[in-house]
Amino acid sequence: MLLRRLLQLLPMLFFISLVAFLLVKLAPGDPVQAYVTPRMAPEDIERIRHSLGLDQPLTTQYFLWLKNVFRGDLGYSLIYHRPVLEMIAERIPATLGLMGASLILAILLAVPLGLLAGAFKHRWLDHFLNLFAYIGISVPIFWFGILLITVFAVQVNWLPSMGMRTIGVEDNWLDVVRHGILPCIALTFYNLSNYVRYVRSNTISQLSADYVQTQLAYGATYRTILFRHVLKNVLLPVITLFGLSFGELIVGAYVTESVFSWPGMGLLGIQAITSLDYPLIMAIILLSSLMLIVGNLVADLLYRFADPRIRTLR
């Protein structure tokens, strides 16, 4: 099964890269304009276009790019004049740290909170957690990020407002943690709101199942049923959300990283899009797509581990 799923990666990635390449090329704008000066002759502009390979047919450009990808070469940035792979390698640790921490915190908090909300359906705790979840889903994350900066960085001056490190402070992991607290809170708040609703709804459906009534009839306590039996079944949708979040581990949170000037893949992606840096855009799309597909594969494997019935069916 694993080998079959791995073999399916290639045609999926090929299709994604082809569609993404066409969409990027159809976008308005011309990256050559970044090289043009007011007094530059048209011949010089065409020479630049030829040196970048942008004067060739789209099919030729795509297959040349694809050929380089198979050789491990993601191209050369048109704007930053650096290898794309080198730029991504510099930004990935920042995004993995921020997104990984926020994702783990959201799951660790959402599971018990969602269980409690479902167990106390239509009571004050359920109403409070539902209100919390709806606020988290409705409030724009950039607005919440600006609010965090205003309160904790400007008014009380407890935490830094932007960046990943203090200028002049190097190799200090505590300084990195302090810079990451506010963006991590913003992302955790957003993810937590989604996860709590999923866990709550599945808890309610599980508590109405026949096996719960059977366990109660045999004298099992409500707490034992909730945390020993219901919890296992509730984890299945959480596994799905976890797998779908793998793409975000590479791409990062575009809005959040922009608000907090966090030097990760999200901020790099925005800069690449605004400057029409084709090789950089394609590399980010390819990596995020690969991580999303791998995330689905990991979720499927975790399903088989969490629910023995799935292993039996297959």
Attribute tags:
single chain; 314 residues; 15 helices; mainly alpha; 75% helix; globular
Q: Number of helix segments? A: 15
From the N-terminal CA to the C-terminal CA, the straight-line distance is 9 Å
What integer value in Å does the Rg equal?
24 Å
Order of helices and strands: HHHHHHHHHHHHHHH
Helix content class: over 70%
Largest sheet: none
Strand content: under 5%
* Low-confidence segments: none
**Based on DSSP secondary structure assignment, what is the total number of beta strands?**
0
Mean pLDDT: 81
Structural class, by secondary structure, is: mainly alpha
Shape: globular
How are the SSEs ordered, and which strands pair?
Layout: H1 2-7, H2 9-26, H3 42-51, H4 58-70, H5 84-119, H6 124-138, H7 141-155, H8 173-207, H9 210-217, H10 222-244, H11 246-251, H12 254-259, H13 265-274, H14 278-306, H15 308-313
Helix pairs in contact: 2-14, 5-6, 5-8, 5-10, 6-8, 7-8, 8-10, 10-14, 13-14
Give a description of the structure.
The chain has helices spanning 2-7, 9-26, 42-51, 58-70, 84-119, 124-138, 141-155, 173-207, 210-217, 222-244, 246-251, 254-259, 265-274, 278-306, 308-313. It contains 15 helices and no strands. By secondary structure, the chain is mainly alpha-helical. It is 75% helix and 0% strand. The longest helix has 36 residues, at 84-119. Helix 5 packs antiparallel against helix 6, helix 6 packs across helix 8 (173-207) and helix 10 (222-244) runs antiparallel to helix 14 (278-306).
